[in-house]
Amino acid sequence: MLKALQIGYKPRETRHPVLIPARMRVGQSWIEVVIHNLSSGGALVASDEAPERGTYIEIRRGRQTIIGRVVWRKDRFFGIQAQGRLDIAAIINEPRLASRPRSANDPESSYERRAQPRADADARIARQLENSRRWSAAFQFGVFVVLALIAAGFAANELYHILSRPFSELESHL
Predict the structure, then answer these.
(1) What's the rounded Cα separation, in Å, for the pair 63 and 81?
(2) Which of 46, 68, 88, 123 could be a cystine partner for 80, CB 3.0 to 4.6 Å?
(3) Residue 152 sits in which domain range?
(4) The dihedral of CA 24, 46, 67, 71: what is its sign?
């Protein structure tokens, strides 16, 4: 059925759902991002400061680098089209470095230049994600409980009216 609806459309690449914290460079600044899914041609990424459509970006995860262009944006989520094919397994299996990799020009730099180490930023993002999931699950449960109570109230009211008529007729005959 789905194939019949997609006549004339390019088949969509397989998406691999992941939650990978990474760093993204937009212009001269670096910001924290989370990659939500990967395909061989691009990725779905989220950040507090989503870049505008058409912006060229660089995403780094350990030694893996993704260079691409933002093709869509909605709230804090955006999709990128990579310049080349992505090695999904390498990106997923890349260990998160504790510090910035040493460059050939700067072999003695072993200190962390950032105010917060990467591990702290990863932990903060993971905690924020878990707190958001817990809050949304609790809110969804609360909404369902309230709706169930309202439906039960309506059903009880209707049942009362349906059963009260025969009992009032029975009472009048006695």
Answers:
(1) 20
(2) 68
(3) 114-174
(4) negative
